[in-house]
Amino acid sequence: MHGIRQKDAGAGPQGLSRPGADVSSGALRPGDPLGVYVHFPFCGVRCPYCDFAVDTRAEIPHGAYADAVVAEIAARAAWYAGAGPLVSIYFGGGTPGLWRPDALGRTIEAARGAFGAPPAADLEITVEVNPGETDAAHLGALRARGVNRLSIGLQALEDRLLVALGRNHDAAAGPAAVAAARAAGFDNLSIDLIFGVPGQTLDDWRRAVDAAVALGPEHLSAYALTIERGTVFGARDRAGQLPRPDDEAVAAMFEHARAAFAAAGLEPYEISSYARAGRRARHNQLYWSLAPYLGVGASAASFRPLADGGGWRFSNPRATDVYLRAARAGGGSPAVRHVERRSADDLENEAVWLGLRTAAGIDRAAHRARHGRDPLAGRESSVSSVVVSGWLEVDERRMRLTPSGVLFADEIAGKLWREGP
Questions:
Q1: What's the total number of domains in the chain?
Q2: Is position 312 within any domain?
Q3: Of 312, 375, 307, nearest in space to 339 by CA
Q4: pLDDT digits (tens, 9 = 90+) for 11-43
Q5: CA 33 to chain centroid
Q6: Chosen domain end from 288, 312, 337
Q7: Nearest to 303 by CA among 268, 227, 375, 354
Q8: What is the CATH number of the domain that holds 241?
Q9: How far apart are CA 90 and CA 35, in angstroms?
């Protein structure tokens, strides 16, 4: 069931790492909208399915972490000179809702100062929060510092399934978090749900979908559980101790959610993403359109698209203390890790993969304008075979997955990955 068992679009198939490469070299592709991603690694507990860079220490170094992130923004802002307007600041984690509002607010001001300060309506500032770990007063303090969007990690709405997922809150905490956010003045809420959970039935999922719709979010993300090798779930799965729904059941859950959310006015615009009119996540759309973004904080990844059609992908040290030491030693700019120089051909392939994950698909004229070739060029035979299978539709204007093809998005992307110039 390729395509729906993943949380993030990511960067696609990767090139070779180039340690020590100068990721600031090369002229930035000008004019594209810009995003800033801030990774806050601290969490109350590590969930057994999570393979993100998470730190569960008892005492969070609020000020020291803000110092490092603010210094990193200042040190790397010049790498993005010439980018278009700053349209998104996204705080992910970990649980950035645990960050002290004054420290988080300093980071917002640093990003606005480094990249310009558009009117509030033109800058989406998102913070991820967990149920049971925040209240209206805390959320009000975030709102006062410019945060205008929350992503609330409900994940499930039944106690039995929350226990199965290793979450540290009960089912009642989810609706309470939504109510607290509304009381704090937020009118743009996203909630996260996971399906394909161990022990979950289709009826369980139908109840979760109904309950999520009743909460009235502006945006919703529904992810099929992915088992990552280095996690507790990964070990249990290898030992045959993780009874999960089979692929047919997961597909049925996906299709039910897609229809039910659309009927409630939450239209699918990407495989895992649903939104009301005008409420699509700006930050995620930057990733899917290969726009530039600067990632700051431990493990944060960045992308610098270049004027020559290629680009740099790179990330920070994963361990929190290593990142903090590196940021201090590097004058605010820790040595980058996992550096990759992506060629124009690499990014053209990525554009096909990412574009097919969206409901709109690939605009052939826009693709040709950016990448210098029609997305069908060099893929004629493989495209034809996928069309015949009923997974892809192509006309003069665009390529996009069919409803059945959405279930196999990654498999299709692999078939269409073009080798060579």
A1: 2
A2: no
A3: 312
A4: 333 444 565 689 999 999 999 999 999 999 999
A5: 17
A6: 288
A7: 354
A8: 3.20.20.70
A9: 8
- The verdict on residue 158 lying in a domain is yes
Of 301, 293, 367, 371, which Cα lies nearest the Cα of 338? 301
108-155 pLDDT tens trace: 999 999 998 777 678 999 999 999 999 999 999 999 999 999 999 999
What are phi and psi for residue 275, nearest 5 degrees?
Answer: -155, 155
The reply to whether 192 falls in a domain is yes
Work out whether strand 311-315 and strand 301-305 pair parallel, antiparallel, or are unpaired: antiparallel
233 and 117 in a common domain: yes
Contact 156, 32 (CB under 8 A): no
Taking the C-alpha atoms of residue 411 and residue 404, their distance in angstroms, rounded to an integer, is 12
β 293-296/34-40 pair status: parallel
**pTM strictly above 0.70:** yes
CA distance 105 to 114: 14
Place of tokens 């897609």: 258
- Name the strand (E) or helix (H) holding 36: strand 34-40
For 272, the 3-state DSSP assignment is: coil
- Are 416 and 374 within 8 A, CB to CB? no
Distance CA 95, CA 42 (A): 6
Query: Using CA atoms, how far apart are residues 93 and 55, in angstroms rounded to an integer?
Result: 10
Q: Are residues 282 and 374 in the same domain?
A: no
User: Residues 268, 386: one domain?
Assistant: no
Range of the domain at 398: 361-416
Nearest alpha carbon to residue 166 among 236, 220, 223: 236
Number of H helices, E strands in the chain: 14, 15
pLDDT for residue 45 is more than 60:
yes
Three-class SS string for 394-420?
ECCCEEEECCCHHHHHHHHHHHHCCCC
Query: What whole-number distance in Å separates Cα of residue 275 and Cα of residue 268?
Result: 7
Mean pLDDT of 330-349: 90
Q: What is the mean pLDDT of the chain?
A: 93
Where among 236, 259, 288 does a domain terminate?
Answer: 288
Whether residue 382 sits in one domain with residue 239: no
Residues in CB range of 371: below 8 A, 6 or more apart: 309, 344, 347, 348, 351
Q: Where are the beta strands (DSSP E) in 158-207?
A: 189-195
Q: In angstroms, rounded to a whole number, what is the distance separating the alpha carbons of residues 98 and 189?
A: 18
Q: How many CA atoms lie within 13 A of 4 on its CB side?
A: 26
Tell me the β-bridge partners of 192: 221
